[in-house]
Amino acid sequence: MSQAAKISAPAPENRNAWKFGFTPQAEIWNGRFAMLGFVTLLATELMTSKGVLSFWGLI
Q1: Would residue 57 be called left, alpha or beta, if left means φ above 0 and alpha means ψ between -120 and 50 degrees?
Q2: For the whole prediction, is pTM greater than 0.85?
Q3: How far apart are CA 12 and CA 21, in angstroms?
């Protein structure tokens, strides 16, 4: 068997792993949490017929 046949490709990086710092994984999780927060904000406005700041009594 030749030397070239023994070399294998590196294992792909797990994009869902918890890694801290400025990594692609951290940015993916940041985006997911941002989407979750945005949907929660919209659901609060739809259920209470008020804006979020009015709901919290800030305005």
Answers
A1: left
A2: no
A3: 19
